[in-house]
């Protein structure tokens, strides 16, 4: 006799997944232009350091952090916020380590 398959899968338990919440935004630190010409805003979060900053587009800020974006734009208009350019410099370094591999003996900048 063949076993009858259950057509409904509702009896299976689904693990609920809680989406990861972004920390509360504190302020915009600066802006820059991405390679594709889109303006990005560097966002600082409450209780976090600069290493945790995130770059967001204007659209992302309008959706989640509208008040902070409006405060930034108003500050630019009033002159209380000065726009700073962010420049990136990439440097490649060859690190020579000792035989045990636990200490850097020399760092040599590579030019390409």
TrEMBL record:
Region (Disordered): 1-24
Bias (Basic residues) ranges: 1-18
The protein's name in its UniProt record: Chromo domain-containing protein
Classification lineage: Eukaryota, Fungi, Dikarya, Ascomycota, Pezizomycotina
